[in-house]
Amino acid sequence: MITFTARHAIGKPVRGEVLVANDGFSARYDLDRNRGIFSRPAHKLSGQSYVGKILVLDTAKGGVASAWMLHEMASRKIIPLAIVFNTVNPILAQGAAFGGVTMLAGFDCDITASVPAGSLVEIDPQVKMLRVL
Amino acid sequence: MQLNDEERAILAGEAGPTPQWALEHQIAVGDFFGAHDFVPVTQAHIMADTESLGQAGVMWLEKLAKVTQGQTRVRIPTITDPRGTDFTKASVLKQDEWMLDLERRAIDAFVKLGVSMTDTCINYQTIQAPTRGESVAFGDTGVVIYSNSVCGARSNFEGGPSALSAGITGRTPRYGYHLDAQRQATLRIRVDWTPKSLNDWGALGGVIGKLAGNYWSVPVVEGLEGAPGSDALKHFGAAMASFGSIALFHLVGITPEAVRLSDVGGDKLPVAHRIGEREVKALQTAYAVTDEVDVVVFSAPQLSLYELRDLADLCEGRKFVRPLLAVTSPQIKPDADRMGLTARIEASGAQVLSGMCFYQSYAREIAEANGWKRLATNSAKLVNILGGYGYVPMLASMQACVDAAETGRLA
Question: Which of A48, B69, B197, B283 is 20 to 30 A from residue B41's alpha carbon, by CA?
Answer without folding.
Answer: B69
